[in-house]
């Protein structure tokens, strides 16, 4: 299968600093933006409000819109309709990954209007990437879409993200280390030479090494209320380095098996309360069994234990599943429409994924803390 390489590397402008939101009004004006949709989560707005400028005082009309909870086709269409009916010049997405993915999707489909992102968590690379992960209104993942236009402006106010729930930060770390494991085989066996692919592979390497070396300290600093250099580095890795993997590498560095398992897990209502990165963490272990990288599983085990990441079905509230129900998850990981498993170089079958999940259960039992 021939893979595509179109690098959509980064937002047009990126600012990480205390007081980053103070740049919002002048940046909007410089782009001739006078009326904006502000899409946000309720809790996200509460966290960001102390740092947000009053745009109306600076001649910019703000149409305030609360997010409905899922980056679904219905929610995206609602935003498109608002952009058109309010004749908005741009859309601002303030919140977590689903808010920002909705803003990106609506902006592109409404005619490639400018999108400005203000992440309030570092739980994934949604703030960086020019794609959206799509869900049904009930929370079931149905795939992703890639857009041709990049985010106009990304503003990170570290004090806002530092005040986000620690669980989301940990989930972001898990999602970030998946970049290395999912891109490794694709990039190592690439059928072409490209500087973009070398940059992608290096970004993926940092997505593993920085968290392994610094995430535990960053999490402890977050618990202690210490906005440290280690925390900044890990936070930026979750957003920037992870986004650069696919930004440079395109189809040579997209999500594969670990995220395919994540997507399949969403068919089970028992997992809907679990964050994206937590389900991906389990998917990493399934992928490593598929690839027979048992030494790497052993290497990751202390890290998983320290961050309380799942490496068996019981950790996902799925310990009571029957063999058939496990097989159904494996089947969904391979046969879901637009399954990411298709991107894996080994082309795992349903039976391969099923046997990997069963083998992982046995491995987890052997490695339980006694």
Number of contiguous helices: 13
The total strand number stands at 8
What is the distance, rounded to the nearest whole angstrom, between the alpha carbons of the first and last residues?
46 Å
Helix and strand content put the structural class at alpha/beta
Binding site for NAD(+): 97-101, 120-123, 129, 131, 135
InterPro entries: ADH_Fe/GldA, ADH_Fe_CS, Glycerol_DH
Cofactor: Zn(2+)
GO molecular function: metal ion binding; oxidoreductase activity, acting on CH-OH group of donors
Topology:
Elements: E1 13-16, H1 24-30, E2 35-40, H2 42-48, E3 61-66, H3 73-85, E4 90-95, H4 97-109, E5 115-119, E6 131-135, E7 141-146, E8 153-156, H5 158-162, H6 166-188, H7 195-224, H8 229-249, H9 257-265, H10 276-290, H11 294-307, H12 323-335, H13 350-366
Parallel strand pairs: 1-8, 2-3, 2-4, 4-5, 5-8
Antiparallel strand pairs: 6-7
Helix pairs in contact: 3-4, 6-7, 6-8, 6-10, 7-8, 9-10, 9-12, 10-13, 12-13
Family: Belongs to the iron-containing alcohol dehydrogenase family.
Cofactor: Zn(2+)
GO molecular function, one term: oxidoreductase activity, acting on CH-OH group of donors
What would you say this structure looks like, in words?
There is one protein chain. The protein is α/β, with parallel strands linked by helices and 370 residues long. It folds into 2 domains: 13-162, Rossmann fold (3-Layer(aba) Sandwich); 166-366, Dehydroquinate synthase-like, alpha domain. The chain has 13 helices and 8 strands. The strands form 2 sheets. A 6-stranded parallel β-sheet has the order 1-8-5-4-2-3, sandwiched between helices. A two-stranded antiparallel sheet has the order 6-7. Strand 4 (90-95), helix 4 and strand 5 (115-119) form a beta-alpha-beta unit.
């Amino acid at each position: 299968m021939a893979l595509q390489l179109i690098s959509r590397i980064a937002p047009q402008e990126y600012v990480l600093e205390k007081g980053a939101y103070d740049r919002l009004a002048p940046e909007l004006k410089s782009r001739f933006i006078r009326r904006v949709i502000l899409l946000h989560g309720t809790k996200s707005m509460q966290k960001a409000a102390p740092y947000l400028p009053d745009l109306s005082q600076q001649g910019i009309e703000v149409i305030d819109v609360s997010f409905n909870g899922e980056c679904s086709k219905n929610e995206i269409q609602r935003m498109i309709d608002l952009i058109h009916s309010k004749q908005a010049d741009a859309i601002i997405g303030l919140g977590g990954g689903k808010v920002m993915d909705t803003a990106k999707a609506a902006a592109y489909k409404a005619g490639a209007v400018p999108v400005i992102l203000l992440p309030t968590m570092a739980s994934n690379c949604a703030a960086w990437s020019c794609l959206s992960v799509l869900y049904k209104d009930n929370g079931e993942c149905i795939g992703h879409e890639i857009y041709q236009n990049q985010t106009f402006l990304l503003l990170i106010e570290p004090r806002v993200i530092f005040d986000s729930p620690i669980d989301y930060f940990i989930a972001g770390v898990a999602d970030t280390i998946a970049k290395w494991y999912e891109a490794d085989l694709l990039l190592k066996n690439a059928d072409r030479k490209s500087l973009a692919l070398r940059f992608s592979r290096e970004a993926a390497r940092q997505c593993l090494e920085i968290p392994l070396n610094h995430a535990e300290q960053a999490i402890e600093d977050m618990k202690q209320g210490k906005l440290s250099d280690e925390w900044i580095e890990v936070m930026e890795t979750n957003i920037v380095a992870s986004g650069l993997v696919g930004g440079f590498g395109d189809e040579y560095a997209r999500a594969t098996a670990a995220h395919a398992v994540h997507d399949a897990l969403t068919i089970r209502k028992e997992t809907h309360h679990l964050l994206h990165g937590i389900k991906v963490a389990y998917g990493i272990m399934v992928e490593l069994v598929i690839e027979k990288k048992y030494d790497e599983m052993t290497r990751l085990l202390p890290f998983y234990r320290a961050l309380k990441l799942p490496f068996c079905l019981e950790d996902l509230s799925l310990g009571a599943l029957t063999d058939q129900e496990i097989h159904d998850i494996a089947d969904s990981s391979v046969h879901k429409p637009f399954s990411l498993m298709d991107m894996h170089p080994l082309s795992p079958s349903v039976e391969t994924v099923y046997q990997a999940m069963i083998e992982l259960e046995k491995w987890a039992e052997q490695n339980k803390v006694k």
